[in-house]
Design brief:
The chain is of the alpha+beta class. The protein is built from 8 helices and 8 strands, in the order H-H-H-H-E-E-H-E-E-H-E-E-H-E-H-E. It folds into 3 domains: about 70 residues, Integrase, N-terminal zinc-binding domain (Arc Repressor Mutant, subunit A); about 80 residues, 2-Layer Sandwich (Alpha-Beta Plaits), CATH 3.30.70.980; about 70 residues, YebC, transcriptional regulation domain (Alpha-Beta Plaits). A 4-stranded antiparallel sheet has the order 3-1-2-8. Strands 5-6-4-7 form a 4-stranded antiparallel sheet, sandwiched between helices.
């Protein structure tokens, strides 16, 4: 554990805010979630998760509403959810989740982003077994880790871990406990989360030499810059 989620989130938000890419990615993800089920988060758990994540990234309400209305309007636009797995420098591992309306284009783009930056694509299952699906929910400056753990125990939620990271308290739990953890916080009057993610957590982080880390970060940037890429997970400790 202890992937410094605060730092990771701030880095991604800072990078994405400059181009508004994050808004476009969330717009697509919200549309797909609303299209696949009811366009109401109270009856569509997938949509509810996406909206909670969007809230932590301050996605404008207009973008959220537009995506949901597009789904309600019966748009024929469709996307495939595809996962790619690969390796970076020094055997580092990467998982790439995409939403695409052109599978051939996306596969080619992801393969090129790996290949041009010292990595290579793997076959399905070559990397994912080293990661665990995980719910990550964090609050800032309101409770200590011990207080949060006690809250979870009182709510009968068996979380994996509760860790203080700088000024935040991060809860790691099973994916199906995402909403239960949030509800436990809300029962205590806490409704603002600085992290609310369903992610893939590496079972073991690795550290890279300085030159390999620079190459790895360049590769991750190239992958994240791709239009169809929604999420990128890896096992490298970037410090």
């Amino acid at each position: 554990m202890g992937r410094k989620w605060n730092n990771i989130k701030e880095k991604k938000a800072s990078k994405d805010a400059n181009t508004s890419r994050i808004y476009a990615k969330f717009g697509r993800e919200i549309y797909v979630a609303a299209k696949q089920g009811e366009p109401d988060p109270e009856s569509n758990q997938a949509l509810k998760v996406v909206l909670e994540r969007a809230k932590t990234y301050s996605v404008p309400k207009a973008i959220i509403d537009r995506a949901i209305e597009k789904a309600k309007g019966g748009s024929e636009e469709s996307y495939d959810e595809l996962r790619y797995e690969g390796f970076g420098p020094n055997g580092s591992m990467v998982i790439v989740d995409t939403l695409t309306n052109n599978v051939n284009r996306t596969a080619s783009d992801v393969r090129a982003a790996f290949g041009k930056n010292g990595g290579n694509m793997g076959v399905s299952g070559s990397v994912a077994y080293m990661f665990d699906p995980t719910a990550v929910i964090g609050i800032e400056g309101q409770k200590t880790a011990d207080e949060v753990l006690e809250m979870m125990m009182e709510a009968d939620i068996d979380v994996r871990d509760v860790i203080e990271e700088e000024e935040a308290v991060i809860v790691y739990a099973e994916p199906d406990q995402f909403h239960l953890v949030q509800e436990a916080f809300k029962e205590a009057g806490i409704t603002d989360f600085n992290v609310a993610e369903l992610t893939m957590m590496a079972q073991n982080d690795v550290e890279l030499p300085e030159d390999a880390q620079a190459q790895f970060e360049k590769m991750i940037d190239a992958i994240e810059d791709l239009e169809d890429v929604q999420q990128v997970y890896h096992n490298v400790d970037l410090g």
